[in-house]
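Researcher: Good morning. I'm working through a list of sequences from a screen, and I'd like to move beyond sequence-only analysis. For each chain I'm collecting a predicted structure so we can compare shapes side by side. This is the next one on the list. No need for commentary yet; just the structure.
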Amino acid sequence: MTDPISFDEAKPTGRARKALLRRLVDYVAMPASGVAPQDRALGGDILLDMLFHATDSERKLCAERLAQMREAPRRVLRYLAQCSFDVAEPLLAQNEAFDASDLGQLINRVSAQHRVVIAGRKSVPPAVGDQLVEHKEQPVIDRLLKNRGAELSEYSLDLIVAMSRKNPQSCGLILERPELRPAQAMAMFWWADSQGRRAILQRFAADRNDMIKLCSDIFTLAADEDWQDPVVRKTLQLIERRQRNRAAIEKSPFESLEQAIGDSATAGLEPSASAEIGYLAGIKPITIAKIFTDPGGEGLSVLCKATGLKRDSLLRLWQGLGRQAKQDDGTPHPAYKRIEDTFDLLSVAKAQTTLRYWNWSLSSAYSPARSAGADFDDEAANDDVTFSTPRRTAKLVFGK
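Model: Good morning. Structure tokens for this chain:
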């Protein structure tokens, strides 16, 4: 009886090894009706051992043959999927035998090229998408965003939206995702281009009428308690119909918000004047500062429409910030025309909701110490930062 053949010691002819490899591939690739599961598994174990000693061209031949085989031995598939890109591509792109666990193991063991292919698979479960996004590779993320067979979790979209601060060209792809939530879109507004901002306002601005009706009696209850509960007060400020701060008029040197804008814009919008305008408009200093320093200017349109201001106030604010309203030939400047169009696009109710949302999510949660801190995942599991919409939005907008 001869000893078993050892690959380390044996010197098989090239023809024999090649023929044996092909025969084993044929065997494990047989349809389910042609071979018993246990026999296929045994054949797969033998084939896998041969593949360890095969050339890339032989492995590629095997991968192409098994690309459509759901019944192919999983060990063989996982091994080939971790080989060079040319070998792995047909399997990663086509084979449906891989489950979320298989793909999750592969993602951390392969190259970015491999991950791009995984991101484009016919079906990408949320857990797999999470792992792909965590590598923060833009080509992988773009492929994932374009793939309608991929399911993106809220966690993944938080990371993708945060990344889009440095890659604003991806905002358009993000806005096409059905999973995108208002909090994420409203955060992304500040670095999206004009087309993206328009899409955000059209798709995510709400009129909150049903919420106002549902909570109408709570306003009376809160007033009876003299607005002592800070949580109730902050929440109802987001819901109520009235935008301007009526109490602020009594303490203001201006008779109205219109006068504050007219006088301040003529003299140039100093920080103190900007803060006063924000106060009269019912928003906090950090929110009005964000609107006034925003290069795009669409926030001015939201501010004016939400507070019932007319076009002349919008023009004064624009010019008070040192921006051109007309070109040398007297025609409207394209940038000013764009914010006028945004002003016309919004209803008062939707503009109010947008402005209040910014105020709620930015000013109530903003803290320089917190914003300079760790990412979402570094927060304690029971910390409100992990779940709070305004805190998460503030981190997306202000970054670390």
